[in-house]
Give the backbone structure.
Amino acid sequence: MRSPFFNAHHAPIGAFSSFTLGFKGASGGFGTELGGPANESIFIGAQDQSGSWRFLPFFSGAEDESRRFAAQEPGGTQTSDLPVYADDQIARTFSLGTDVWRAEDLVFSLYSAHGTVPDPEKASPDALREALVPAIYAQLTVDNTAGHSAREACFGYQGQYPYQGMRIIDLETDEATGQSVRGVGQGGYSAIVSCDGQATPWLGFSVQSILAERIENAGFGLGVCGLMRMQVPAGERRTFTFALCFYRGGIVTTGLAAQYVYTRLFANLEDVARYAVQMQESRMAAARRADTWLQETRLSSDREMMLAHAIRSYYGSTQLLEAQGHPLWIVNEGEYRMMNTLDLTVDHVYFELRMNPWVVRNVLDQFADRYAYQDAVRLPGDETEYPGGISFTHDMGVANCFAPPGRSAYEKAGLTDCFSFMTHEQLVNWLCTALVYIERTGDDTFSGRRQDLIEACFESLLLRDHPDASQRDGVMSVDSALCLGGAEITTYDSLDTSLGQARNNLYLAVKTWAVYVALARFWAERNPEMAQQARAQAASCAETVVRHQTNDGWIPAVMGEGNQSRIIPAIEGLIFPYFLGYQEELSEDGPYGELIQALRRHTETVLTQGVCLFPDGGWKISSTSDNSWLSKIYLCQAIVEDVLRLPVEMAEADAAHVDWLTHPELSYYSWSDQVVAGRITHSRYYPRGVTAILWLENRR
């Protein structure tokens, strides 16, 4: 039986904040701009019929802080002395909008954001306030209908933010609604608030010391623990609703001064709290509708879980900033916190075009205006530099520090593996993202404004095939001169050569083929001569890939260099013509039929035990590496099912992938991407899993 104790994000959109919960111990709580959970103790508990307390197990031991103030050693207990519900008494129902914990007659529910974000340059303040309020919601229900005496319940936390202390929040009654908002919080940073007059805020040195109090000391300001205490009369079942609020004011970045868009909509944490409690019914209803939407997709329960988990993690990584009066959409790269990593951007596009198409344009413009650069190239073993044309950086910076224009935080010279340049891949990624955006939205203004850039990118692709036009075969064969004797890599930076080396790489070749196909369509009416040139490059690339297929049916991961690795992501590039609805180009009877047939046979050959399947049935993206990436697995599953239409049974693989994510010892970091032989290892707290949205595409 799978453990229910895995961390998950519960995040507002665009606030780069998360109330993370689910892994045992002090492993969740209020986190803003972090690369992992905040490690706060969360207290959710109730008295039983005998009056004894029990809690959900989301805290760890801490001594009563009053000892620091005593001249002599006083008595006292540790937080770890709090009794918890047994594991077999706890059940969890996890979905997209809600996350519900049940322990006997206690129910604790979290309600998270899921929805669209209007373009800040066009939307009204009211629409933006509703979409961007930095808050989620919780409900605590205690069923005392069988009780003969009143019972208490509580919900609170022990803040870990080092610069501001815990406090009581007691806002004036709103004249329009008659509501007063009370709660506990940490400075102007985080808060749990309620407009339920039966929920009272308490502050103290420990949970035990607060629960022992019988006189409300509203003015007491010492202690690191804040609780909301509630009482449920005998014979009643009561539900208490809370808003969990975040706030980060002022300039939050360097390199380019920016602040959160929500800070021009809400003055401070108190302002967020007032608005959040007013909106609680509609926002919780929206979360329930998200659950209904997910159920109506008719995915298997395992796929429902993974899609919900991934979307939550994506939202927790999002950051909507404003600089010089213009919005900046940022998706932070999980535990690494790199900003708008372009090889993630290209994988987020399927989800973002479904939810918020304007953010795709916004990120494309950021790369075009600030993070494009002119390059030169070198042939292997030759220091002669040739023109390389334009490309784009790997990212825009890290941890709220924008990189200088034309620079990334990641890329270094002189390397052949992790941290080297991804110049060709990022050129392909920008083009893929731009062409998909234009095709799916019909944004003629953007396409007209960026047509010259798209032409420059095409010229750069040609130069990176080979400086000598007569030797071009459609596949990258040079390295950026910025590598200074090193070699370019791909997004699969932590894998071996099979997916790490960019030059002559099968994965990147098919992705490049997809770009040429999309460019040919883009220019069909705009520039017929360029369209013909793009078709010729696509045909040449396809021929090169087919020529390297072995008699056994598989294609080497690195072509023409004696590599024996076999990879599933050989098919990854097929997603772009599929997503664009280009059925002719994907047909085995179409202009690239030999390529499609070759990739089909390759996939049938590698999706076998001992090659690209782990013993548990999970997918192994390279035959020569145990490092497998779930976001790419999801993407390739969609291709196998809906493009190649192979009769591959997915249930065993899906079950294995859920087991990876819910590993009882390793699921602290919420949704995670890199899993080595079934164990979460890197790329944790990560947003890229929204490639799972492709399970719903089925356009053909």
Q: What stands out?
A: The radius of gyration is 27 Å. The chain has 18 helices and 26 strands.
